[in-house]
Amino acid sequence: MTTLLRNTLGVVGLVAAAGAQAQAAPDGLNWRLGLSVEHSDNMARRPVAVSETVIAPTLAFAYLKEGARGEFEAAGSATYRHYQQERFDDELLQQIGLDGRWLLVPERLSWALQAVVTDQPVNPFGVDAPDNRQRTQVLVTGPTLALRPSTNVRLLGELRFMDTGAERTPEFDGQRAAAAARLLYQRSPLTALSAEFESVDAQFDRAGVAPDYRRDNAFVRYARMGARGEWNADVGYSQVRFDDVVAGFARKQSSPLARVRLAYALTEITRLEADLQRGFGDSVQDLLDGAPRAADYALPIGRAALSDSTLSPDLFEETGARLGVSHRSEATYFRVDGRWRRQEYLRATGLDQTIRGFTVSANRQVRATFSLGAQAGVEWRRFGAIERRDRDSRVALIANWRTSRRTGLSFELSHGERSSTEAQQVFSDNRALVTFNLVR
To answer: Which of 170, 295, 308, 392 is the most exposed place for a label (fewest CB within 10 A)?
Structure first.
């Protein structure tokens, strides 16, 4: 990835959203400006505590546009963190996701764009701290050709170009060319069947360090959509072939592919989400799946995420499950998520790990101008190669005041800690955060 693209992609979400404001209805763009002061008694999250105070202006936004010519979504935030005691270098943190599709020829040809900019750990075995972060980018773009041999059959052909890069993990830098063919059969208004083939050729910039490879997926899908939800199931087969022969590792590996996803409304205000996975995965897909979404912007309390992604150019064989339940009424919001995931890397076996954990978020609108929230999460991580066990936990209490129609004040107290079989990874961290917000 070129330096120009790295610098440009980091702000393209902000530029696109700002530029689209003039072309879209006012409801298409939402934003807030914040100025926060945060104090931590252990900012580096190390056994020997280092206290620090941060002043941080933040811009958060969400933009959603749907029309006859396509659809576009952009969401995320950018925060500049200034460390008062200068124990750490100032930093610009960004979490930005883009997802768009434009119709070039109605019902025939479209163009897709997907991108994510995020800050990821440099050391996957370390903690989230100012000296363990790096800018990471993924860009995906390309055309889709649609043919309709009959009223209930469609044939899709896709070409995609992907570019990946990271500031301090150069082996992640590279390009990918992908192609897919999908035959879709609309069995009824509610159900559909498809047969799909996907192929990705990954080439990395650092020859001999990162494993170049080709991955092929072939599977069939059954999808059903109803009045209260939808679900789909994929069953198939995957194969990976590396370009180079490395002693001790197979050049070609294969795995069954199985995925089940469910989203269902238990009641008008309660929703269930679940998925099961078995097959090959990589950190590029993890980053795309974890990109900010416009729907998350409007939540009364931010979603607490499990940190189950490790930045690496290598593929892993994955077995996992996730379950989420959310409840949202006019005055109350509650969400609980649980996840279990095992990753076995094909060549970078030192990164093999098993992760399990859960998060809980709750918010109560006490008055029209005042709300109280709480979050808690626990994550257990086991690294197989180094026989290490970590347990991370965090709890937070949050209060929000709406001081006027466009201004607000929030206050957060949090406690985080890690216990580990590795003594240098143990820490305890207490934080206080005050934020003034200007909201569109």
So the answer is: 295
pLDDT (tens digit per residue) in 80-95: 999 999 999 999 999 9
* C-alpha–C-alpha distance, residues 83 and 77, integer Å: 19
Percent of residues, the chain, with pLDDT higher than 70: 93
| Backbone phi, psi, residue 121, to 5° | -65, 140
pLDDT digits (tens, 9 = 90+) for 177-187: 999 999 999 99
169: which 2 tokens? 């993990």
pTM, whole model, 2 decimals? 0.90
What is the rounded CA–CA span in Å between residue 382 and residue 320?
15
CA 18 from centroid of its chain's CA atoms: 23
Tokens of residue 238, six digits: 């995957």
Any idea how long the chain is? 440
DSSP of 58-124: EEEEEEEEEETTEEEEEEEEEEEEEETT-SS--EEEEEEEEEEEEEEETTTEEEEEEEEEEEE-SST
Lookup: tokens for 413: 């107290």
* Interatomic CA distance for residues 2 and 173, integer angstroms: 10
